[in-house]
UniProtKB/TrEMBL annotation, chain A:
Binding site residues for ATP: K11, G12, G13, V14, G15, K16, T17, T18
Protein's GO biological process: division septum assembly; negative regulation of cell division
Residue ranges constituting the CobQ/CobB/MinD/ParA nucleotide binding domain according to the UniProt record: 5-217
InterPro entries membership: CobQ/CobB/MinD/ParA_Nub-bd_dom (IPR002586), MinD (IPR010223), MinD_FleN (IPR025501), P-loop_NTPase (IPR027417), ParA/MinD_ATPase (IPR050625)
Name of the protein this chain belongs to: Septum site-determining protein MinD
NCBIfam families per UniProt: minD_bact
Gene name for this UniProt entry: minD
Any single GO CC term annotated in Swiss-Prot or TrEMBL for this entry: cytosol
UniProtKB/TrEMBL annotation, chain B:
Protein name: Probable septum site-determining protein MinC
Domain Septum site-determining protein MinC N-terminal residue range list: 8-85
Organism: Paenibacillus albidus
Domain Septum formation inhibitor MinC C-terminal span(s) in chain numbering: 104-201
GO biological process: cell morphogenesis; division septum assembly; regulation of cell septum assembly
Summary of subunit composition and partner proteins: Interacts with MinD and FtsZ.
Gene that this sequence comes from: minC
Length: 264, 220
């Protein structure tokens, strides 16, 4: 029996879909059998980030309404044999499936896959309830901004009232320079308010944008700092004790930085 | 049975009668005198047309049953129509209000905690979280959200927190918004209270100046 993890945030645009795609791919890199589920019906993105948009035949709503079998709707990844994706419908809206239907689909997937990552839509309404209905665990994504932390707090409160196990936190898009100058919330400030376990921090990295646009998850590129961060999160999900990434670049890392900009 | 004492006084007012019941004597004596007066000595005024009656129990603290017993006696006289009964509330409910109710947890954005009485909350109240109380609020943790003490209009209520850093504070009907209204302060355990309708912030050790009735430790 696999484990279903919902990736959620409350606020939009903090990187739920990117996180889902990258952690999922990183788990597949580790040899795990993984299925990604997009529950953002009407505004699906996961297929685009994964570069699988043109392979979609059936979707989540088709499965829920019995128009096809679950296996027919699953899209196999280009890079990994053991990585699949269940896309959301783009022409419907969130209310076209019920939380019970989603839960049944996730339950079915858990028989086949070791990890099911559920990409949750923004908001706390029907779409959120759909997404968490089948989840065992939750990852809450936030960015170092007051608005995102506020929404994460709201989501954590709702998760604590639900059946989902104690949620873990990912702080996304950290810019060490801004944190150092005091212009960005630091990890400690965020943890003090949210008071949940941290499972990873991801630095802001231009390569993530490039990767998402080319339909290739960042995690495939070992030169990207964000890729390393996502791989670390995947290893922590698997139970490894990986220390948190050191964000202040020490002089020794300067050569790496130069290489990063193609000067090395 | 003869009753010489004057525990029950009956006064005529413009549109009825006022029964002034003594608040010092034993309650049983009061009842028996009331019964005696109605059945024997004051029969003259109690016959005839319907009379409105106000009952004043003074500062005697009575329960619902006690009130019922008084009403029972008056109702036995068909022409008395009880209009009002004034008394202090029974001590039972009052004591519960004054006791400090202990609660712990984490109040997150969008969550609301209401308590009838005084509350000691162990944990944080996050921005977007709301804590309301009919009495005082004491928070052993950080108050970053909104706290409203004395929601039913009690201006004596206070709000205290280990870290008083709220988005907004309310006591009774007064709303205050930091930090522009409070200026900069040292961060130590503080409390908010009202003086002349304005919100004030002070260090917790100064609470004895506000609450004279507190048990104060003076050293041994």
């Amino acid at each position: 029996m696999g484990e279903a993890i919902v990736v959620t945030s409350g606020k939009g645009g903090v990187g739920k879909t990117t996180t889902t795609a990258n952690i999922g791919t990183a788990l597949a890199l580790q040899g795990k059998k993984v299925c990604l589920v997009d529950t953002d019906i009407g505004l699906r993105n996961l297929d685009v980030v994964m570069g699988l948009e043109n392979r979609i035949i059936y979707d989540l709503v088709d499965v829920a309404e019995g128009r096809c079998r679950l296996n027919q709707a699953l899209v196999k990844d280009k890079r990994f044999d053991e990585l699949y994706m269940l896309p959301a419908a783009q022409t419907k809206d969130k209310t076209s499936v019920t939380p019970e239907q989603v839960r049944d689909i996730i339950l079915e997937l858990k028989k086949e896959y070791e990890y099911i990552l559920i990409d949750c839509p923004a908001g706390i309404e029907h779409g959120f309830r759909n997404a968490i209905s089948g989840a065992d665990k939750a990852i809450v994504v936030t960015t170092p901004e007051h608005a995102a932390v506020r929404d994460a707090d709201r989501i954590i409160g709702l998760l604590e009232q639900s059946h989902v196990e104690s949620p873990k936190l990912v702080v996304n898009r950290i810019r060490p320079g801004l944190v150092k100058s005091g212009d960005m919330l630091d990890i400690e400030d965020i943890l003090q308010v949210l008071n949940i376990d941290l499972i990873g921090i991801v630095p802001d990295d231009e390569l993530v944008i490039k990767a998402a646009n080319s339909g290739e998850p960042t995690v495939m590129n070992p030169d990207s700092a964000a890729a390393i961060a996502y791989r670390n999160i995947a290893r922590r999900i698997l139970g490894d004790a990986v220390p948190l990434m050191q964000l202040d670049r020490k002089p020794g890392a300067f050569s790496k930085l130069k290489k990063f900009f193609g000067m090395g | 049975m003869t009753v010489k004492s004057k525990h029950v006084r009956i006064k005529g007012i413009k549109d009825g009668l006022v029964f002034l019941l003594d608040d010092k004597c034993p309650f049983e004596d009061l009842l028996s005198e009331l019964r005696y007066k109605l059945e024997h000595s004051h029969q003259n005024i109690l016959t005839g047309p319907i009379v409105h009656v106000d009952i004043k129990l003074g500062s005697r603290i009575v329960t619902e049953e006690d009130k019922e017993a008084v009403l029972e006696i008056l109702k036995s006289q068909g022409n008395l129509l009880i209009r009002s009964i004034d008394a202090l509330e029974a001590p039972g409910s009052k004591e519960n209000d004054e006791a400090l109710f202990l609660m712990s947890g984490m109040l997150r954005s969008g969550q609301v905690l209401h308590h009838q009485g005084n509350l000691l909350f162990l944990g944080d109240v996050n921005p977007g979280g709301t804590i309301t109380c009919s009495g005082d609020i004491y928070i052993l943790g950080a108050l970053r959200g909104m706290a409203h003490a004395g929601v039913e209009g009690n201006e004596e209520a206070i709000i205290a927190a280990s870290l008083l850093s709220p988005t907004q504070l309310r006591i009774a009907d007064i709303i205050s918004r930091p930090p522009d209204e409070w200026g900069t302060r040292e961060s130590s355990m503080e409390f908010a209270y009202l003086t002349n309708g304005a919100m004030q912030i002070d260090k917790i050790h100064n609470i004895v100046k506000l609450r004279q009735g507190l048990n104060v430790f003076k050293g041994v």
